[in-house]
Amino acid sequence: MLDRPFQRMALRAIADDPHLLRDLGLTREEALREASKPFWR
Fold this sequence. Notes:
Layout lengths: L3 H11 L3 H7 L3 H8 L6
Helix pairs in contact: 1-3
């Protein structure tokens, strides 16, 4: 559970890099939606 905030910060940081998002199989919208979730979800 403690890793979630850091993972979401990382998602937010790569949301503008289409190459990294494509490697992860995510769209920018999906990354930002996940990054904006509260840490307890």
